[in-house]
Design brief:
- 2 copies of one chain form a homodimer.
- By secondary structure, chain A is mainly alpha-helical.
- Chain A contains 13 helices and 2 strands, in the order H-H-H-H-H-H-H-H-H-E-H-H-E-H-H.
- Helices cover 36% and strands 2% of the residues of chain A.
- Chain A has helices at 2-20, 46-56, 69-72, 119-128, 138-146, 149-159, 166-177, 186-191, 200-211, 249-253, 262-266, 298-310, 316-326; strands at residues 239-241, 274-276.
- In chain A, helix 2 crosses helix 7 and helix 9 packs across helix 13.
Chain lengths: 355, 355
C-alpha cells in the first residue's frame, strides 16, 4: 500500500534528519501553495467562487434560516467555532468538534472519520445533517435556493442547464472553500529561506517535533499527511489510531477512547478509533483540541499526543518549544469582503420556519 | 411641542406640493448624508470603529457564544433577519421583528417602542436581553471580553483607563454602526438632480406617496421623521399610533392591534399602540413588514398602511407605483471586510457554555 510506503520512508527520513541535525532540504514539509488541487469535474471560475461565497454566508441553507456554513466554520476566526461541540439548528449539539475549513482543500479526505471524500460531499452531508443545518432532503435545499431569483440568475450563468441542485450548490461552496488558504505563515517563510522568520525557541521546537516523531503523521503542506496527488488520491484516507497506546491517565481524563472513530461510519471493526490526521496549520487558534474538544490548551494537547501516540513524557521545556513551533504555523488570512445576499421576495426568508 | 409643529408644517407643505405638482426644492426629503450625527461623548476614530466591527461579528458577546450582532442584523443582507420573529440564544424567539441596523444612526430613538435613546443603549439592551444575546449582567459581558487578550490591548488603545466595560463595548459597537450608511440610492441621485435615476412609474409613485400622505410620517433623510438635531434631539421620540383607524379587516387578519406598543415599555396608557416610525430605506429587502412581521410583501404593506393609517383604499396602480418608488430607496451597501477576531487562549470560546 502506497500510504504505508511513504509513512515508513518519512519515519526513517525524519529519524535520520533528527540525529544528524536538520537538513532542511530533506524534510517532509513544504510551504503551503496558494492554489490547492482542483478536481477536474469542478473547475474554479470567479463567478462560481463568488456564488459559493454567498451560499457560505447564507443562513437560508439551514432549515431554520438561522445557520450558515460560517456559523460553525467562522472565517473571522480559525474557520471553526472554538467549541467542544458544535451547535446546529434548534440548538442541537454535535458530538465531534468542528474541523477548520481553512486549508481543508489540501485534505484527501474530510471529517474526523473520513466519511466525506470531497469538500463537495462534506458540504452535502452537513447541509442534510439533522444536527447541523437540518435540511431534510436534497429537494428541500433545491427549492429553498431556487425560490431566490438572484440565485437563479447566478446559477444559470455559472452552471447553465444544470441549474440549481444540491449538487451544484455544493460545487459552488467547495469552489469558494478552495480559496480559503492561509499562506505565508512564519514557518512557511522560514522554509522559504527566511531564517529569522521564526524564533530560536520555535526552531528548537521544530527539531523536537521531528525528534519526538510528531512529524510521522503531521507532515507535508498541511501538516496532516499527503495532499491529493501526493501518495494518496482525493478520497483516499490518511488515518491513525488514537489513542495509539491505550489506558493512559490522559485517556481516562479526556475520554479519548469513548468515541469509536471511523468504525462508527465504516462499520468495519478494524477502523475502531481510527481518525483522520488533522492539520496543524493555525492550530494556535483552533482550541479546544481533539475530536471531542476535551483538551482546552495547546500545551496540554502536545503532552497528550506525545504520551498516547508515541509513549513519550515530554519535559515542560520540550512542550514549550513545540508549542512555540506550532504557533509559527498560523498563516495569513486573506481579506474576505462580506458578500451581498440576494433577497427572498414575496415571502419571509424561510417560509414556514420563521414564525 | 416642537414635533407637533414640524408635523403640521410638513403635512401642509406636502399637501400644497401635491396639488400644485411637485416643487422638488420644497419637499421634506433629503439625500442621505454619508456622515450621520456623532454624539459628543463618543467621537469616531478608526481604531474604535475597527474594534466595534470585531465586536459586531463576535458570537462571544452572547452567553452561548452562538449569536453575534450580525446573526440578526445581517450586514450581508438588509441589516436584519427577514423573519417575523428573531431567534436569539437557546432558540428563544422575540415577539417583535428585528429592525435594520443600516442607517439606524439617523434615528432619534431606537427599537420599535423607542425604549433605547441611543445606539449605545440599544446594544446594551440586546446584549442583556434573555431572548437576544442572553448575557445575565454587565459584569459577565465585561469578564467575557476581558478574557480575550487581543481585545484587552485594543480597548487600552481606544479607551485608555476606561478599559473594558459594557459601556465601552457598546460605545465601540455604536461607532461601527454609525458607519453603516447606504448612500446614493436611485432616489438620492434623483433628488440630487439626476432626473433619469428613477423610472417614470417611480416618479408617479413618489407623487402618490406624498398625495396619499405617507410622507406625513415617512420624511426627511431616513424616511422616518426628524433625524437628531432636526426638530428632535437624540433620545426624543417620533411616534405614531398604529393602527390609526381601528377595526379594519387588515387589523384582524394581521393581528396589528395585539401588541400594545410603547405602552408596554413606558407603562403610560397614552402610549398604547404608539410605535416609532420606521425607516423606509432599503425597505424592498427587509420583509416581512411591521412590528409583528405578519405582512410578507411590500405591496400588501403599502395597502395596509394606506387603509389603517390614512383610511385610503388604493388602486392596484397606486400600489404598484408606490412600490416602484419605494424600491428606489435601496442604497449602495459599503463593502465590509470580515474582521479577524482575537482568539480566546487557554480555554474554549465561552467557558461553561460550550460543552
Amino acid at each position: 500500500m502506497k500510504l504505508r510506503h511513504i509513512f515508513v520512508a518519512l519515519t526513517l527520513m525524519t529519524s535520520t534528519v533528527a540525529h544528524a541535525g536538520i537538513d532542511y532540504t530533506m524534510i517532509p514539509f513544504k510551504t503551503l501553495p496558494a492554489q490547492p488541487p482542483i478536481p477536474q469535474d469542478n473547475p474554479q471560475t470567479d463567478a462560481k467562487i463568488a456564488l459559493g461565497k454567498q451560499l457560505f454566508f447564507d443562513p437560508r441553507l439551514s432549515i431554520t434560516g438561522t445557520h450558515s456554513c460560517n456559523s460553525c466554520h467562522n472565517l473571522a476566526a480559525g474557520g471553526e467555532d472554538n467549541r467542544a461541540q458544535p451547535v446546529g439548528v434548534y440548538g442541537r449539539k454535535g458530538t465531534r468538534g468542528t474541523l477548520t475549513i481553512w486549508n481543508a482543500a489540501y485534505h484527501t479526505i474530510h471529517n474526523w472519520d473520513g466519511s466525506a471524500k470531497t469538500l463537495e460531499q462534506q458540504a452535502q452531508q452537513h447541509i442534510l445533517d439533522a444536527k447541523v443545518m437540518g435540511m431534510p432532503d436534497a429537494n428541500t435545499v433545491q427549492e429553498r435556493i431556487a425560490g431566490i431569483p438572484g440565485y437563479q440568475q447566478q446559477f444559470n450563468t455559472v452552471f447553465g442547464e444544470a441549474g440549481i441542485s444540491l449538487n451544484t450548490i455544493t460545487k459552488a461552496l467547495a469552489s469558494f472553500e478552495r480559496t480559503l488558504i492561509t499562506t505565508n505563515s512564519p514557518f512557511d517563510r522560514f522554509l522559504s529561506g527566511e531564517r529569522m522568520a521564526i524564533s530560536k525557541q520555535a526552531k528548537r521546537g521544530f527539531e523536537e517535533f521531528i525528534n519526538v516523531r510528531c512529524a510521522s503523521c503531521h507532515f507535508w503542506v498541511n501538516f496532516a499527511g499527503p495532499h491529493p496527488g501526493l501518495a494518496l488520491q482525493q478520497g483516499e484516507g490518511f488515518y491513525e489510531l488514537f489513542p495509539n497506546y491505550p489506558n493512559t491517565d490522559y485517556e481516562k481524563r479526556y475520554k479519548l477512547a469513548d468515541d469509536i472513530g471511523r468504525y462508527y461510519y465504516s462499520q468495519d471493526k478494524t477502523d475502531t478509533r481510527m481518525w483522520r490526521v488533522p492539520s496543524l496549520r493555525n492550530v494556535e487558534i483552533t482550541a479546544p483540541y481533539f475530536h471531542n474538544g476535551t483538551v482546552k490548551t495547546l500545551d496540554e494537547a502536545v503532552r497528550v499526543m506525545a504520551k498516547t501516540q508515541l509513549r513519550r513524557d515530554l519535559s515542560q521545556q520540550q512542550v514549550d518549544d513545540i508549542v512555540a513551533f506550532l504557533k509559527t504555523l498560523t498563516g495569513e488570512f486573506p481579506e474576505i469582503a462580506l458578500p451581498r445576499l440576494p433577497a427572498t421576495p414575496k415571502r419571509t426568508a424561510v417560509a414556514g420556519h420563521d414564525e
